[in-house]
TrEMBL record:
Protein name: Four helix bundle protein
Alphabetized Gene3D superfamilies for the sequence: 23S rRNA-intervening sequence
Domain of life: Bacteria
InterPro entries in the cross-refs: 23S_rRNA-intervening_sequence, 23S_rRNA_IVS_sf
Amino acid sequence: MKEQLKIRFKKFALSVISLCESLPKRNSTFTLSNQIIRSSTSMGANYRSALRGRSAAEFLAKLGIVEEESDETLYWLELISESSLAKPEVVEPLWKECNELLSIVVATINTTRRNQKASK
């Protein structure tokens, strides 16, 4: 499961990069592209870092960053969609995948916290 998620995060980031490459070249898209590339690539980077955490606290802290970056990525996708910079059929699958990844991360955070409380 961990390896599959690492792959999903990487594929997602690559898909976001492709989306950004397809956006019209305007001043507004430069900022949007920069921000969404940063947040989407940070999702996978911090997930990988979480897997190497030396403690449950470190694991949770890194997953918290993944949660924040995922939510930020959803925001940028919404802006791209609502500003009509990309077609809905292009943005929608990315939004769905990002939302699924976010749900998995939140569930993992909640499970880890429950397990920590149960072990005390």
